[in-house]
């Protein structure tokens, strides 16, 4: 998860987030190169008293500074489109979960099971145990199996919400009367935190999202215990 004074992204926990971080680094290097070139040209133009007549009127240099930006844009656009289609791809999910946004909590329904669902409320500060994070912990976590494709159907019951978990590279708007879907594969076991990312009222800051990824056998044991409690 994020830590104080962090400048970069959180560590990627899904293949899509890894691709997003690689694309960010790729684009940032292009931005650095362009910035360095422009700074050098400005410095050279300001600091020298010499004039090159070929720069004042040159067909060749105009061709270069027209074609070069087009090539740079293609170098950015192609990997961007590839990741865009990867993020939209949902192949044979092993598990489907419906996440409903409410004012101000989330409810989860495991649609592959007959009666497995629960509400997820933020734990109040005075009720936190040592090691838990303020404004991020919930009384019920969304437990999923690791290394398995998981589809999340996202909607809302009252106003606009947004289901977002940065470490997974997932952010999907929850719109009343509309069913959106997203998918992810978690690469390793762990606990991943997110928050509602759409301003939804007075307690918008107090409806966190906690996703816990566990091995498949642990997930089966957890689902069995939840069904017994129900």
TrEMBL record:
Classification via Pfam families: COX2, COX2_TM
Catalysed reaction equations from the record: 4 Fe(II)-[cytochrome c] + O2 + 8 H(+)(in) = 4 Fe(III)-[cytochrome c] + 2 H2O + 4 H(+)(out)
Cofactor dependency: Cu cation
Source taxon at top rank: Eukaryota
GO MF assignments: copper ion binding; cytochrome-c oxidase activity; oxidoreductase activity
One cellular component term from this protein's GO annotations in UniProt: mitochondrial inner membrane
Functional description taken from the UniProt entry: Component of the cytochrome c oxidase, the last enzyme in the mitochondrial electron transport chain which drives oxidative phosphorylation. The respiratory chain contains 3 multisubunit complexes succinate dehydrogenase (complex II, CII), ubiquinol-cytochrome c oxidoreductase (cytochrome b-c1 complex, complex III, CIII) and cytochrome c oxidase (complex IV, CIV), that cooperate to transfer electrons derived from NADH and succinate to molecular oxygen, creating an electrochemical gradient over the inner membrane that drives transmembrane transport and the ATP synthase.
Protein name (Swiss-Prot/TrEMBL): Cytochrome c oxidase subunit 2
Organism annotation: Cetorhinus maximus
Gene it is expressed from: COX2
